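Try this one yourself first.
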């Protein structure tokens, strides 16, 4: 493969993104550095800057990839089902998000800082994929709930997508947070990604 080819560039970018994803399993955003990402790849830290200018750009690319994987799941739901009732649809979408922990985890971060520290071309590429996820969700609503009005579908999307930003903090709680809730005497019900998503979609569609 010739040096500098488009295929090689994409392969290296994917290697960097995958290394970041792997580190993110056990480390926080603050702990991860471009140097640590480089150590987990076959590239040097200097070489990484040929593809990403900042750590935020790498995380934005990871978030973009996670959205792309979720879009594939939304398309699969449409392709494999002729019709679905509210519970079936809620279950399918909840299951698709339960498989996308990194998507939800990155969504819970400060998007303003991540996007502000990314080049406009990187941010534009991400926004295109984000827009596709909204389109595919609307396609699901069009297929499975044709009785919904355009306003009702828009209302669902404007409610559900902001809701997704809070799924991770409400379903993944550290031991320290649990102890603090206990000491504060807060009666908190812990739910899984599936449970909280299933409940929210049913509530939005049955209104």
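Now uncover the answer:
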């Amino acid at each position: 493969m010739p040096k500098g080819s488009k295929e090689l560039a994409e392969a290296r970018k994917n290697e960097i993104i995958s290394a970041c994803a792997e580190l993110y399993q056990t480390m926080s955003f603050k702990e991860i550095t471009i140097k640590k990402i480089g150590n987990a790849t076959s590239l040097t830290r200097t070489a990484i800057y040929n593809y990403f200018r900042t750590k935020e750009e790498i995380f934005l690319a990871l978030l973009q990839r996670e959205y792309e994987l979720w879009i594939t799941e939304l398309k699969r739901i449409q392709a494999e089902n002729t019709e679905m009732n509210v519970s079936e649809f809620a279950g399918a979408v909840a299951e698709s998000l339960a498989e996308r922990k990194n998507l939800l985890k990155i969504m819970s971060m400060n998007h303003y800082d991540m996007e502000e520290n990314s080049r406009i071309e990187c941010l534009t590429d991400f926004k295109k994929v984000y827009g596709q996820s909204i389109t595919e969700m609307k396609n699901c609503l069009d297929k499975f709930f044709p009785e919904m009005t355009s306003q009702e579908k828009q209302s669902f999307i404007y409610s559900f997508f902001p809701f997704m930003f809070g799924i991770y903090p409400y379903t993944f709680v550290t031991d320290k947070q649990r102890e603090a809730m206990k000491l504060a005497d807060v009666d908190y019900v812990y739910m899984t990604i599936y449970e909280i998503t299933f409940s929210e979609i049913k509530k939005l569609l049955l209104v």
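Discussion: Residues 63 and 106 are 7 Å apart (CA to CA). Residues 1-52 form a domain with the Arc Repressor Mutant, subunit A fold (CATH 1.10.10).
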